[in-house]
Design a protein that fits this description.
Strand content of chain B: 15-25%
Keywords (chain B): Oxidoreductase
CATH class of chain B: Alpha Beta
Organism (chain B): Planotetraspora mira
Largest interface: A-B, 8 and 11 residues
Number of domains of chain A: 1
CATH topology of chain B: Aldehyde Dehydrogenase, Chain A, domain 1
InterPro entries (chain B): Ald_DH/histidinol_DH, Ald_DH_N, Aldehyde_DH_dom
Oligomer: heterodimer
Structural class of chain B: alpha/beta
Distance between the termini of chain B: 88 Å
CATH superfamily of chain A: Aldolase class I
Number of strands of chain A: 8
Number of helices of chain A: 12
Pfam families (chain B): Aldedh
Helix content of chain B: 40-55%
Protein name (chain B): Aldehyde dehydrogenase
């Protein structure tokens, strides 16, 4: 049996592709994967909930809050994933991504916009050289129920159109039935199809039912080559929660220690208020550490959150409460 | 048999149909007109005001879209529930205002009548404020009234029940939602009124009542960009000026404090309703 501890001795495995990382040997077969993932220590559910709740009570005020708001804006993946999305809506969202508040140019740009693959070209064109990245969901989002060929083609389409980040969904059916190797191979194949694009792997924690499964899925995705692990599609309730993100942050922290490769985390869905966003920032700092407090390593998948951040920002600047009438409708 | 323990009421705020304590955890002592201790009331903070505005905003689409008939019915229901608690309000008014039992009874009756009076206006205000306008062209040109939105109300210090009812009813009958800062000196009837409102089919958030210092809370409401109008009836000279200045930022409608002392028992007229109405005019082509 391959255990976590046996990798403590493994040296530098960073920046090495999936197939040559020493952790790859756990992916030799479904049984080795299973043995490894089930050998991970269990998550104390009550403890994780309590820890996340406790960190959520931290009070962040005045200048720290101001900094946290700007940081949170820089970490947002501004997302629109509706069946009714149009090129016009995506263009408007891109304009907002570059200048979230057109009346105040001191507001930083968001990290990326996140759209469906067919709208990637529109977003790339609208963002131009602004530095805001284009992320695209792929692999039969949001259910992930299709053949590997279709998923790879879906990814290739988005990459060819200029997406620099791919948000893929895992096959939860395969994961829950214990077919870890299938999930692993799909992630690895999509990673290969990404080329230079970053791969975010969506675990859809709302469908994984236990924190143990979240930890296993996190490790599985990281071993298979994920650059980011993401909580949810936003289509399933519950979406991102603090304790689930805590478990994932612990996983990336431990993965860096054992495999020497740093992986980012992206909670998505259900983060609507500044208070929520700041709770996540506290959680990152206290769990993975300050190294992750950076848009390259931590993102917030959200749409309505930005307006609340802007309203709080305006409140701090003007001293009066802001109203939604003065911000974009999205 | 041992003596019963006294079960005293905790006076809390009324926000979004619920009765929370102040976020700040503060309270203040409320005394009777003779200076005796009556109760501790919650002392609302600016954050309670913010929550109340959010609740009022959330309630606005539903309440403003309700039919005038339905709003009238609900106001009438409030009057019924108030009538049912007559003796409780009489006792509270005797304590708070130092009036006699008979006078207090008159004031409660007047408050009930005031609600019924405004309830009747719900489907009639459009008839006096709307119009069919003659225009030089083949168009029907119709003006109709619409509620302004979220209204902040600084309730009068005098008239803890009748005054309060007389400022809340005209605001909500036309479809606005409101955040009310109750009389600081005599806040207890306002929370008992909140209990009446909470049991009268009035959707949560249509009326939100804050107790505490108007001087502390009102400027935050006046400056709040998501508040559409402010009624400064209970704001004294300097506070009213500060609030009106802050209200200018997003062009709130402002109802200034009355110049002379108001007799709340007198016929109120339609002024308080029309102060918080917008006019929408529609041009419609006349068919041939």
């Amino acid at each position: 049996m391959v255990s976590l501890e046996s990798f403590g001795l493994v040296g530098d495995a960073g920046a090495v592709s999936t197939t040559t990382t020493p952790l790859a040997e756990v992916a030799a077969s479904n049984s080795t994967l299973r043995a490894f993932l089930h050998g991970l220590p269990g998550v104390d559910r009550v403890g994780a909930d309590a820890r996340a709740a406790m960190l959520g009570t931290r009070s962040i005020k005045t200048t720290s809050k101001k900094q946290a708001i700007d940081l949170a804006i820089r970490m947002v993946d501004l997302t629109t994933l509706e069946g009714a999305d149009t090129p016009g809506k995506v263009k408007a969202m891109c304009a907002k991504a570059i200048h979230p508040d057109p009346t105040d140019l001191s507001v930083p740009s968001v990290a990326a916009v996140c759209v469906y693959p067919d709208l990637v070209a529109t977003a790339v064109q609208a963002l131009g050289g602004s530095g805001v990245k284009v992320a695209s969901v792929a692999t039969a989002f949001p259910s992930g129920r299709s053949s590997l060929e279709v998923k790879v083609a879906d990814t290739a389409l988005a990459v060819a159109d200029g997406a620099s980040e791919i948000d893929m969904v895992i096959d939860r059916g395969a994961f829950l039935s214990g077919d870890y190797l299938k999930v692993f191979e799909q992630i690895a194949a999509v990673k290969a199809a990404c080329g230079s694009a970053h791969l975010k792997v969506i675990l859809e924690t709302g469908e994984l039912s236990t924190y143990d499964n979240v930890r296993r899925a996190s490790w599985l995705a990281m071993i298979a080559g994920a650059d980011f692990i993401k909580t949810s599609t936003g289509k399933v309730s519950p979406a991102a929660t603090l304790p689930v993100t805590l478990v994932m942050l612990e996983a990336v922290r431990d993965f860096l220690r054992t495999a020497g490769r740093k992986v980012g985390v992206k909670p998505a869905g259900g983060i609507r208020t500044t208070k929520d966003a700041i709770k996540y920032l506290v959680l990152v700092n206290e769990t993975a550490g300050p190294d992750w407090i950076d848009p390259d390593w931590f993102r917030l998948g959200a749409s309505s959150l930005v307006n609340d951040l802007l309203m709080q920002r305006q409140k701090m600047a003007t001293g009066r409460y802001a109203g939604p009438d003065y911000f974009t409708l999205d | 048999m041992s003596e019963r323990l006294a079960v005293r009421k905790t006076y809390k705020l009324f926000i979004g149909g619920a009765f929370p304590r102040s976020e700040s955890g503060r309270s203040y002592v409320v005394s009777s007109s003779k200076g005796e201790f009556l109760a501790n009331a919650s002392k609302a903070s600016r954050k309670d005001a913010r929550e109340a505005v959010a609740a009022a905003r959330k309630a606005f689409p539903g309440w403003s879209a309700a039919t005038a008939y339905n709003r009238g019915q609900i106001l009438y229901r409030v009057a019924e529930m108030l009538e049912g608690r007559r003796s409780q309000f009489v006792a509270e008014l005797v304590d708070a205002d130092g009036v006699g039992v008979r006078k207090a009874g008159e004031l409660v009756d007047a408050a009930v009548d005031r609600l019924v009076w405004y309830a009747g206006w719900s489907d009639k205000i459009g008839a006096i404020r709307g119009s069919a306008n003659p225009v030089a062209g083949p168009y029907f040109n119709l003006s109709s009234t619409e509620p302004t939105g979220v209204v902040a109300v600084v309730a009068p210090e005098a008239g803890p029940l009748l005054g309060l009812v007389s400022v809340i009813a005209p605001v909500i009958v036309t479809g606005n939602t409101c955040v009310v800062v109750a009389s600081e000196r005599a806040p207890l009837p306002s929370i008992t009124l909140a209990e009446v409102l909470a049991t009268s089919d009035l959707p949560g958030g249509v009326v939100n009542i804050l107790t505490g210092s108007a001087a502390e809370i009102a400027p935050w409401l006046a400056g709040h960009m998501d508040v559409n109008a402010i009624d400064l009836t209970g704001a004294d000279g300097e506070l009213a000026v500060t609030c009106e200045e802050a209200a200018a930022e997003n062009l709130k409608r402002v109802l200034r404090p009355p110049a002379a002392k108001v007799d709340w028992l007198a016929d109120p007229g339609t002024e308080r309703m029309t102060a918080f109405l917008e006019t929408k005019t529609v041009w419609h082509p006349i068919g041939t």
